[in-house]
Request: fold
Amino acid sequence: MIKRFTVLLLLAGLATIFISLALGYVPDSSLNYTALYYADNTVSDTGAANIVTAIIVTYRGLDTLGEVTVLFLTAAIVGLVLKRGAKAGKGKPMLASGELLCTGSGLLVPLILLLGVYVFVNGHLTPGGGFQGGAILASGIMLVLLTNPMRHFSHRLIAVIESVSGLAFITVGILGIMLAAGFLDNSLLPKGTLGELFSAGTIPVVYSFIGLKVGAEFSSMLVNLSETEGS
Amino acid sequence: MSTLLLGMSVVLVIAMIVTALVAISERRLSIAILSAGLVSLIASVLFLLLAAPDVAMTEAAIGSALTTFLFFFVLGRVRGESDD
Reply:
């Protein structure tokens, strides 16, 4: 009774807050100061067509490094916890996957991987980028694992991809301190023409490394989960 | 925001609330997982309508694809263990 009453009270409180917010909402007639700066100066500063990518990789590059670190820690802890569990595959063999799933995944997985690579390579031109592309790559790996849960992925390869892209990300950032305006500054490479693939300085390079790193981290979590039985 | 977009958003929001309620109250786990994935999918369409395609892609890839797959994966694992 008290529990139900508390839940109702909480819901009523949330409803009051949201209704008052919705009634008091007046759309801004112009951008605020920071947004105006980004909208006006992104193209001349960085040469990226996608302002969101320019903010994530260049203006707020340090925050992105923090996000990547959080994801890395998560993957490392998942690996650490699951390492104690017994290895799968020793017990009774699982049922084979259906014909539809096998054929469909054989057709779809290369296309999904290609889409993931496209999304993070074109992060400075089209919506999306490293994090989205990496998640798409990992969902391709997930489809492979769903089709054949006993399939073995090389942990060493995943670890090498993950560490090399992380190191390359930091290296590009430090080269920015030495050769350009600051950490992760993108004027290391020429800005090029707006809207071309090789433009916006180091943004496509950095975002491709982020994409590979995020994809490898998600994949290592999935592979660890599928290879462990019990906990 | 035009009237069409507003109408679409209202329909999507109602559908989202209904699928969220299904995800909470459904007894069969697989249907609950599917509805939870559907909530994320509708949320990503809403983000697209609100002119945030980057967030929409993240929501679609992580919220509706990876999380749903992961839940099914764990569900299969749990069922496999309870059979022993």
About this structure: The interface with chain B takes residues 50, 52-53, 94, 119, 127-129, 131-132, 135-136, 138-139, 142-143, 145-146, 218, 222, 225-226, 229-230 of chain A (CB under 8 Å). Chain A has one domain: 44-229. The first helix of chain A runs from residue 2 to 23.
